[in-house]
Amino acid sequence: MNSVARILLARTAAAAIVLIGVSMLIFTIARVIPGDPARIALGPLATAEQVEALRTARHLDESLPVQYGYFVRDVFHGNLGTSFYTNRPVTTDIAQFLPASLELIFAAGFLMVVLGIPLGIVSAHFRGGGVDHVGRLLALLSVCTPAFVWGVILQLVFAYFWPIFPLEGQISATAVLPPRATGFITIDALLAGNWSVFVDALYHLALPALALAMAGIGQTARLTRANMVDTYDRPFVEMARAYGFPPLAIATRFAFRPAFIPTLTILGLDFAALLGNAFLVEKVFVWPGISRYGVEVIIRKDLDAIVGTVLIIAAAFLIMNIIVDLLVVLINPRIRLAEKRT
Amino acid sequence: MSAATGTARRTWYVFRSNPLTILGLAIVTLVVFLSIFADFITPFPEHVGPIGDFGSMSAPPGGQYLFGTDTLGRDLLTRIAYAYRLALVMAVVVLIISVPVGVTVGLIAGYVGGWVDYALMRITDIFLSIPPLVLAMSIMGFLEPTLINGMLAVTVMWWPWYARLIYNVTRSEAREGYVLAAEIVGASTFHILFREILPNCWPSILTKMTIDIGFVILIASSLSFLGLGVQPPTPDLGSMVADGAKYMPDAWWLTVFPAIAILLVVLGFNLVGDGLREAFEADA
């Protein structure tokens, strides 16, 4: 078995263990905390019999391990339970709301890489100079500002005072939506060959994606800079300089490549922050993603929906990190599993 | 002059020679001063409560209201000062509870090794693989949104980061000669963990704690921005931004000043933390 397949297997196994742990953790939190979910779901007017019937139907009267057993059985049938709030299967709810969130998150991840890395390269190239100081301060500022603050600031500047972007929403109210294939409006529009909707969707995506990406852009720039400054001191960079390679080639080819790998690993971990912060940005821009659903089911103590949502989010994070690990291996074939564990 | 004071003096010298650190120190001092003496220096201490002054609703900044007033006519500066007090208390309590837990887990996992290591670090991974905000939100959802429960929710998500950090430090320290020496003379595991290895972790812990005061405030304000944190009328930076956003752009000060207040305090503790790290590293 080649090493890439072996790493993929080991990572997937570790992720599966963690995911089982996450399910136990969130399941336990959801059950041990006071408040009768059946009573909350049915409201104060329901009779004791009705509440009791719902408790029996949902196995809420059983012991915790038995309840977890039912839960695991259902998960293997692709069933995450039924939401008390929407009265639909949790999987249906998540399938409806998650794509919009993922679209936002992927757009933000894209901005993080295409803006953060060049910023870091420029900062490292002019290290110690004025550009570097300004760049570092800006990067620090972006890391220290919560995503929702970026959201309202961008809204205030680019939607109110200088209205070049729409204030909120995912698409103009007048737009005719393309047939839903992926749930990503931009991709669906492209698949349908509908340019005007595609442009309109991008237009709506710009501010929320930037607000979500800001902290990551700063973080990426800081990491890229720090790792590149380290490689600039290495002999092979000296050598490249001695051979007379132009500074741009030295920066992008010699100093950046080795610095990219540690940066990439951290960026994979940062994906968790994007997933979490999406909740804040979605609230600011009234984005029809998982945020409103998540907050709503949390406030209503909607057990199955909360467990399902957290589980899906954790799974997304773990899958993303497996992808990042694979990318690292593909970029740097020297990396072996044993080296990575320490 | 003894060696110890010499080291301290050098650390202090490196610490204060970075202008950004001094800026951070100034911000932190200002925030701490505001929150301790809020009762005496804010212009309208009574505006903390659920009162309204309908003669001066949504007054723009200027005059007797430096930052303007909110939709109930309450002075924004006063409310920000009290929100700082709450945020600082919360951050300190969260760290005082979560840091010892995380550090202990990290020390044990890193030193003992074997299946204890594997079990403890997988448990840590479980907490780390739920986005912090999502974990805190879910815990918050099952509890009543009070200050105490908010602290609890953030504490539960905070310790794993210290477990990770101290685990890595311990793994490298455990191979050092002084640990081996202690083992040879038959020191107990407890002694080795807390008397030998822990003192070498202090620089990492202190640096991270300083930076984290800012980040706990950031997470707490994020929770209350979503309506899952401290409830009105208690002044809170996150809910002030959320409320103010409804009145943009006309009453921009309702959003802008609390927003700046958050980023200022996070920035301040970050700069001081960075300065501490530089000072400790120069020392090592």
Description:
Chain A is mostly helical. Chain A has helices spanning 3-32, 37-42, 48-57, 64-76, 90-125, 130-144, 147-161, 185-191, 195-232, 235-242, 247-284, 290-299, 303-331, 337-341. By secondary structure, chain B is an all-alpha fold. Chain B has one domain: MetI-like fold (Orthogonal Bundle), CATH 1.10.3720.10. Chain B contains eleven helices and no strands. Chain B has helices spanning 3-16, 19-36, 38-41, 76-112, 114-128, 132-142, 147-173, 177-184, 189-225, 237-245, 253-283. The two termini of chain B are 20 Å apart. The chains are: A mainly alpha (342), B mainly alpha (284). Chains A and B meet through helix 1, helix 6, helix 7, helix 11 and helix 12 of A and helix 5, helix 6, helix 9, helix 10 and helix 11 of B.
CATH architecture of chain B: Orthogonal Bundle
**What structural class do the secondary elements of chain A suggest?**
mainly alpha
Largest sheet of chain B: none
Main sheet properties of chain A = none
Order of helix and strand elements from N to C terminus of chain B: HHHHHHHHHHH
Oligomer: heterodimer
Strand content of chain B: under 5%
Portion of residues in beta strands of chain A equals under 5%
Q: How helical, in percent, are the residues of chain B?
A: over 70%
